[in-house]
Each structure stands twice: as C-alpha cells, then as structure tokens.
C-alpha cells in the first residue's frame, strides 16, 4: 500500500479517537439541554472543576488552603495523605452531586419559566463563579493527573500494522481507554434512561415539562439528577483531557471542541453527540492531512465549524436532533 | 462641624496613610484564566524583587517603589484597559508579558511617551531603537532564539546540518510565527529542511501535528508554544517516543509547568533560556530575610527558584536598574517616564553589577544604546532532569548570529517606519 494511503488511514483512526474525546464533552451539554432546555455554558468549567477536585482529593490537598493560611496566619500544606484514584473519583462524584443540588437550589429554581436566553446567561455566570471557586479551592498550578490509565503508543497496534503494511500506526493507549469508557458510559446512560424509573421520569421531563409535572414527577429532583449525571460526564471528560495536558485552567476551553459536535449531531441526541464527535474528529484530521499543507496548516479549529455548518444547511436540527414544529 | 470632621479625617489620612510613592511600576499580571499557571510565578517574582528593594534598600535612590498590579487574564482588551487605567499614576515602564498586549501597546506608549519593556517577547524588530524609541526587548529576541537553536544543533552535528530535517511546531499566532523568517534564512544557509507545523490556539488537541512528526521523521523539533500547548506537545512527543534530547523549546516553552505533567517521559527535553533557573544565587538569601520570612512574599510564596519566578525577578531587576541609571543620568531621584527611557537606553548590565545585585552568573551581560534595544542576543540551552525535578544549564550563553539578526531587524523595522511615517532617530 502506498505510504500516503497508510498515513491517511492512520490519521483517520486518530480522528476517530479524537472524536470520542469531543463526544465526551458534548454528552454533558446534550444531557442538560435535553432535560431542561438549558444550553449549559459552564459544562467545560464543570470538567475543569471536577478534574481539579479529583487531583486535589488524590493528593490530599486542603480545600481553600491558601485562603485559610492568609486569613488565619496558619501554615497548612495538605492533609499529609494521598487517596487512591477510585475512592477519589467517588468522593469527587459526591462533590459534583452537591454542586448539582446547589445549582438547582440557588439558581435554577429561581429561574423557572424564564426565557432560554436568561437561563443561558445564568450558566455564563455559573461558569465564571465555578472557575473562581476552583482557583480558590485548589490553586492555579498545573497538576499532573494519573488515575492509572495507560498512556502512550500502543505497541501491539504498532507492531501488528508494521508486520502487515511495513508501517506501524500510532494510536494512543489513552484514546483507546477513552473509547471504551465512552462506550460504557453511553450504554449505561441508555440502560438508565430506558429501564429505570428515574430514567423514564427524566425522559418524560425532556419530552414535556408540564405533562411530567401533572403526573407527579418532581422537576427539582429531575434537574438535580440531570446536573449530577452531567457532572459525572464532566468528570470523565476532565480525567481524559487532564491526563493529556495536566489539569489546568485551559481545560475549560475544551467546550469549544464540543460546539461543532453539538451543531452537527443535534442538541438533544446522545447518539448524535457520539456520531457527531466521530464525524468532526475524522473530518478535521483528514482535512488537515490532505488540505492543511496547501493552506499553511492549523485548519482543525475552523474546519470543524465549517463542517458543522455544511451539515446544518441540509439538517438545521442536526443529524439526530428533533425537528421543532411550532404552531401559532 | 462637617468641615472640622472632614479636615480631621484628611489630617489623619495624611499622618497614617502610606508614604507617597515616587517610582511607579505597573505589573500587568494574570493570576486568573487559562494562563494563570505561568502568570503567577512571573508576577510573584516581579513583586518580590520590588518588595526586597523597598524593605532592604528603602527603594531605589531613596525613592520608594509603588508597584500597581492589574489583572489582565492574558486578555488583550483587559491589558489595554490596565494600561489606560494605570498610565496616569506616573507609570515608568510597562512589562505586559503578552505578545498580544504588546502589539496593542506599542502605538500607545509611543504616543504617551512611556517605555515598554518586552523581556524576550513581543515584536522582535523593536530591537531597533532608531525606529522604536519607547520599546525595549533585551536581553534576547525570538530571532536570537532561533539563531542560537540552530547554532547549538550545528555544534551537535559537527558544524553540518545539510540534509537534516528540522520541524518547527509553533503556536499559530504572531508570536509563534516570529522565528519562521530567521529559520527560513538559516535553512538556506545551512542546507537543512524546515518543516512548519502550526498548532491552533489553545493547543489542547495536537494529534494531527504529532502524527505528521511521526510520518515525516524530522531529526529535531523546535517549539514556539505557550500554556497548554507546551504540556500537550511534550506529552505527545513522549507518546510517539520522539527522542527528547532532540526536542528544543523557546524560553516560553521551558518552565517546570511545561514538563512536569509528562512525568519521567519529559526527561532530556531541552529549552532555551536567557537567565538561569534555580535558587542558588545570593539574592535569595536577601529575599528570605527581607521578604519571605517577613511574611511579605507575593501570592502563595511557593514559586521560588522556578524558571518563571526567576524571569519575574529578572524583569524587575532590569526595570530597577533602568530607573537607577535614569536617576544617575539626570541627577534626580523622582524620575519621569522620559528619563526612565534614557536610563533603559543607556543600561549596561555587566558581571560586576550582577554580582553586586546577588545575581552573579544569572543572565548574560548586555549593553543598550539609542540604536540597540535588543541586548546581546546571548542565550543558553537548559535540559530537564526529571529524576531531580529541575532544569540543568547545559551550555554557556551562546551568541546569536548578529549579522543575520541585525539585517532582518533592520529590514523589518525600516518597513514599519515607512508604513507608519516614523522618522529615524540616533542619526
């Protein structure tokens, strides 16, 4: 096989892997939008906050350490213990559930029946608040995150493809883990929404708030549940992206990668987020490989949006989005 | 009665208020946002140096220093706001630590007559003082960095780079593109192939770039990155098993923040620098006595000896030495921004002076003049030792190709002068 074809296949496979990571971020947006019609601007910051909390707990850091030292003149530098990754993930999830409860109690409950733009603006405020809170709680330094997931070139794929084609493909072990975790996550979400009472209630609220309320489903409970699940998805995304770059404040910018995925896959579809992520991942990587060198490279950011816009021309609701028909 | 209360309050404020500060140094810092991890150590070093001068020496030449910190969040608009809100306070020199803010401030400081010092960043051709009267970028520029990187690789390869392939992985911005011109010239001179690989902001996802590196198999990779782009690039290089000793970053890709997330894999990664890392300098004894132990350290007080903290110290030292020189030239202690410009323009940092400051061997010696605002262009190569968790100095300060850099600076700055109708000075 010619080298260029092999290179293109390698790029495509890496695009699929990158797409899974984009989809992980997009999933959080979809869950909240589907259940409450809110475009949650804070989803990227939630991923950052969850990852910061996870590392902080793992390293035995005292929350608000610097603030406590300044105010009380103490010299606190951590609890002096470390926490195993699995326990730290569970504790972080508890924090994300508390966060979800607080968001509902302090923000969303007071904005019921407001215009979507008001709710969107509330999430902008939430994003800035959460970023500041994360900074105060855990500090601004870059933290290495290691929850035990393998990282680096997959030797088996490298050797196998080398024996077959004379060129070894580079696939990152972390990306393979991300793909498996994303698949389990989506399967879990499908089982939850289809076969559990809470999942059915969640779908009922997503379909029609008023009808769900009329049959006794608590909107508050469903919103806390949705934001908690979105918090869990944010934690998974934070772990995957944080393992690549270290946990740092630019992690919140991963939300930018989810927007074209949402435009393409639709804001209300979980399969849409996955398929959209894969299309964007493969599309941007192949475009960069084939056309990038002709136009000076660095095409990925803008090409993802162009690709999403092209899809929108033909399907304004996105690939899997629900077509809205409003009668007046 | 009201008047008496007011007069009393005013008198009390005059008695108990802070002493009137005479030398104002704004610190356009970023302690928040995506680049905070880099902004904090620099801002801490910058503040701690001025605190040391105030506490130990009573300021500079008898005048206390007033450092005004303004948060930019590495945002260009906020940086300009900070400039506008502080320039009326008698600001003597601005050091924004951002190429984006620098480009916006160049016309403003030129109009307002306030010096701008961009320590190893900003617009490279501002090194020509004949065109850029108010801008300084010593001790080294990006073009010096590119030249020194190639000189170092020439040394490593017995003086011959012909047939070698060198990739430049760069932030797709004005900053990242700065070395391309120099490297293109050097590629022609030395016969190596230059492979340009831009990375879009912020650089969180670089898989395409590193798949290309793997496919193209360059002998060396140079990097002009900032923030998360650095950490991801180093991790990707580790992932594809690129030999780290053949990977060299510019000084903005060479702090502890950049290498630590990749763990042991980053061992051997190299970076250029125009000052030393670590805390083995006499000044740290004074900092400990007068600043840290006195509870006056900036921020959390946990950045001592890191590359970016040292860079903040170095930036403040140059500002302070510029002010000292201005006082000496003009025979006054309370200097104006125009006098500060004179001080920065006649600044001479020699080894004897560095020793006096407790910074012997900390940075290259250099002299400034009316025409030359770019310094000596001498840069060292450092290497990351992951086991010890510290940067090691690998070479002496290497002199850049001054003939080439001088020609490029002249061409670019003269074109800028013609575009903007600037009359050449220092004739």
TrEMBL record, chain A:
It is a multi-pass membrane protein. The chain crosses the membrane at residues 6-31, 38-58, 78-104, 111-130, 176-196, 217-241, 261-282, 289-314. CDD domains: TM_PBP1_LivH_like. The keyword Transmembrane applies. It is found in: Cell membrane. GO terms for molecular function: transmembrane transporter activity. Keywords: Amino-acid transport, Cell membrane, Membrane, Transmembrane, Transmembrane helix, Transport. GO terms for biological process: amino acid transport. GO terms for cellular component: plasma membrane. PANTHER family: ABC TRANSPORTER PERMEASE PROTEIN, BRANCHED-CHAIN AMINO ACID TRANSPORT SYSTEM PERMEASE PROTEIN LIVH. Belongs to the binding-protein-dependent transport system permease family. LivHM subfamily. This is Branched-chain amino acid ABC transporter permease. It comes from Palleronia caenipelagi. The lineage of its organism: Bacteria, Pseudomonadati, Pseudomonadota, Alphaproteobacteria, Rhodobacterales.
From TrEMBL, chain B:
Keywords: Signal. Pfam families: Peripla_BP_6 (PF13458). Coiled coil: none annotated. It comes from Palleronia caenipelagi. Residues 25-385 form the Leucine-binding protein domain. The keyword Signal applies. Residues 1-21 form the signal peptide. InterPro entries: Leu-bd, Peripla_BP_I. The keyword Signal applies. This is ABC transporter substrate-binding protein. Belongs to the leucine-binding protein family.
